[in-house]
Design goal:
Order of helices and strands: HHHEEEHEHEHHHHHHHHHHHHHHHHH
Radius of gyration: 27 Å
Number of domains: 3
Structural class: alpha/beta
Strand order of the largest sheet: 3-2-1-4-5
Number of strands: 5
Largest sheet: 5 strands, mixed
Length: 407
């Protein structure tokens, strides 16, 4: 804005209050509406996903934001102030239904909400009302809930409290903070939070990564000869850093949480659609935890139960399995394809539900499944196979799917 005013030169007179609140605002509204309408063509061509994001602002108002995702991008649709409304399943269902009808029932294939019980119930009612729409919970929220469940275990509670004590002391005192940055070569260590579960585990990984640096710091002459060293808080801090029992707990908690943090990075990544990677990543994370704790199965057992509970309750969706099946990196990896061969029936479930009574369309889609699975036509080219590894799944389909036979 400032660049535009400078480019205009001297003599520019800014708009007054009435102009900003009147014709200029109306013009911006029209421009924004035209921008959103520009996405409708893509919604018609590829269909879209509606996302409902409930949150509470600083004024304690309950707001629900609605966004629409398609390959062209994500647009904000509207925000609803639900403070005065009862957030019951009936209210949310009517609200979701209105949004679907506004976007166009024929354009919507997927509806995403958080994992709150009323949202889940409304999402399932939406599926019953519109069989062509799939509902699923937010994947990032699911992973965060798993990590939240991890935090109920004593080994995690004590480790987070220990880490919090170390970081709180460092960041509340200038000289210890200076020394920490000196020994970590300028790197920061993240601070655990009381409310953000994923951040806690990322913080623990950060602290554990700098274990040797912190250890070197508290046994250095600079620390043992400084004015802080003899203070009670400093002695407690030094003892905490030198406590080998807690460092062992750090290692355990990091080994348990790191695979799930990797899944969280996938679902929070804005560079690629996560649906084609989530199924395999989640199963791989669980398998990795089992592998790491083969000799300590009892220790890992409650954590695996937390993972399985979330998967069985919210995550195990045909849509996620279909995303796995249509990811060429999975389909043309013989080991993965055989391991999760049951996903084929999940894809057929999606096709049967999507096509309804249209037998001809169902037959056409299953024939095209065979073309893709067998690598016929351009799917079988060495270039296509090689690009499975380096190209995003949606880009791969845009490149090779459009020119495949019958597709």
């Amino acid at each position: 804005m400032i660049d535009a005013m400078c480019a205009y030169g001297s003599g520019y007179k800014g708009p007054n209050f009435n102009q900003l609140c009147g014709p200029l605002l109306a013009k911006c509204v029209v421009e924004t509406r035209n921008f959103v309408d520009g996405f409708r063509k893509t919604w018609r061509e590829t269909s879209c996903t509606i996302m409902a994001d409930g949150w509470t602002d600083r004024k304690r108002r309950t707001l629900i934001n609605f966004l629409v995702y398609c390959p062209k991008g994500t647009v904000f649709l509207k925000s609803v102030d639900a403070t005065d409304s009862s957030k019951t399943t009936d209210f949310l269902f009517r609200l979701f239904k209105d949004v679907v009808n506004f976007v166009g029932l024929e354009h919507v294939v997927h509806f995403v909400t958080d994992n709150a019980s009323n949202m889940v119930a409304a999402g399932r009612r939406l599926e019953d009302e519109f069989p062509s729409i799939y509902w699923s919970p937010c994947a990032a929220h699911c992973v965060n809930l798993i990590l939240s469940d991890f935090g109920k275990e004593d080994v995690v509670k004590t480790t987070v409290a220990h880490a919090s004590g170390i970081t709180k002391y460092i960041y509340n005192h200038c000289f210890p903070l200076y020394l920490m940055r000196k020994f970590t070569k300028g790197h920061e260590i993240l601070r655990p939070s009381q409310t953000s579960f994923a951040t806690n585990f990322i913080a623990l990984q950060s602290i554990y990564k700098h274990k040797a640096d912190l250890y070197a710091m508290v046994i250095s002459n600079e620390w043992t000869t400084c004015a802080y060293y003899k203070e009670p808080q400093a002695k407690k801090f030094t003892k905490a850093v030198l406590d080998q029992k807690f460092w062992k707990n750090y290692a355990i908690v990091c080994q348990l949480s790191e695979p799930l943090v990797q899944v969280l990075r996938i679902v929070d990544n804005n560079e690629r659609p996560a649906i084609g990677y989530l199924f395999a990543a989640f199963h791989a994370a669980r398998d990795e935890i089992v592998k790491r704790f083969q000799r300590k199965k009892e220790l890992a057992k409650p954590f695996l139960e937390y993972i399985d509970a979330q998967w069985d309750k919210h995550f195990d969706k045909n849509l996620h399995a279909s995303g796995f099946w249509f990811n060429p990196n999975n389909q043309y990896n013989i080991e993965l394809r055989e391991k999760y061969n049951f996903t084929t029936s999940r894809v057929l479930d999606v096709i049967e539900r999507y096509t309804g009574k249209d037998i001809a369309l169902r037959s056409a889609l299953t024939k095209e499944m065979k073309i893709f699975r067998n690598g016929e036509g351009n799917f079988g080219r060495s270039t296509a196979i090689n690009d499975c590894l380096g190209m995003l799944a949606d880009e791969w389909w845009q490149t090779y799917g459009c020119s495949a036979p019958n597709l």
